[in-house]
Amino acid sequence: MKKFKQRDGFQGEKLISLPETVWKKAIKENPILANLYLTHIGYFPKATYHFRERKNGCSDNIFIYCLDGKGWYSINEKRFEVGINDYFIIPATKEHLRYGADEQDPWTIYWIHFSGFDINTFNRSFKIGLLDGPSQISLNEKGLELWNTMYKNLEMGFGFENLCKSNLCLYHFISTFLYPDATDSEKKQVENDLITSSIFYMQSKLAEKLTLEDLASMNKLSASHFSLLFRKRTGMSPLDYFIHLKLQQACLLLLTTQTKIKHIAAELGYDDAYYFSRLFKKYMKMSPLQYRFSPPFKTL
After folding, report:
1. How far, in Å, are 131, 182, 187, 221 from residue 212 at the CA level?
2. So what CATH class is 185-300?
């Protein structure tokens, strides 16, 4: 059977789009509503073949929360994978956007479009960047409750009171994702332990070649989420940190042994000694031989 793509029309979906004239009228009545307001709100369950392309970007912020299944989105040629309990915000942009459901395991998503009179300042203030990638969150029950409140208010009509109630909920809704409950101290401890155990694992595998996928899979996380947690804790990507550990060991061997450079390279998983030397020089600003005989410090 030939596969097709569709923007909406999924069994059980919910979708409300607010005409621009509605907001213009409401903002005239209460100018404060112009700061941030909903333009579209929807829910797509098991959205098989869901696909959307926006060649000229979107003037609204696009928010998507994946509750089940998988999906993806791309900004120009940069592609991001999205899994269960991942959410992302694409800030208003003119760049080429595409997003859609995984063909084998289509996503179930809650989504909104929102805008404001100075949406770019809003995005800068809350550090919402174009290439941030998805973030993972524990099941956001409060966020889902607020989504339902917004939807039900608008379902009752576009009267001024309904718009105001939905608009006030919008702020709270976004905050539940940007600033999850700090009750998560236990989760943070788990994440810290996860990063610590990953570093110990790297230290035990200096002679091997590890990939980001290896490390993420070991922790039962997506590569993007593991990388985000690791960078948050260490300030470096997992693979850069692994290289850093290898080079630390190389420095130790260069200073405390007479082992040949090609053998040090081999001990650290580099079959090509010339590649190892170039890598060493890139990070240490001198060749391995220079480091051995003229280290950048003097012992007392």
Report:
1. 19, 28, 22, 11
2. mainly alpha
Band the pLDDT of 299: cuts 50, 70, 90. very low
* Interatomic CA distance for residues 80 and 84, integer angstroms: 14
Residues with Cβ < 8 Å from 154, sequence gap 6 or more? 16, 18, 38, 41, 162, 163, 166
Distance CA 112, CA 290 (A): 57
CATH number for domain 14-180, candidates 2.40.110.10, 2.60.120.280, 2.30.110.10, 3.20.20.70:
2.60.120.280
- Cβ burial, residue 215 (10 Å; 0-12/13-18/19+): buried
What pTM did the predictor assign?
Answer: 0.61
| pLDDT tens column, 193-216 | 888 889 999 999 999 999 999 999
Tokens of 51: 């696909």
Q: What is the mean pLDDT of residues 272-298?
A: 87
User: How far are the Cα atoms of 9, 72, 125 from residue 130, in angstroms, in the given order?
Assistant: 28, 15, 14
Paired tokens of 240: 């850069």
Per residue in 32-53, pLDDT tens?
999 999 999 999 999 999 999 9
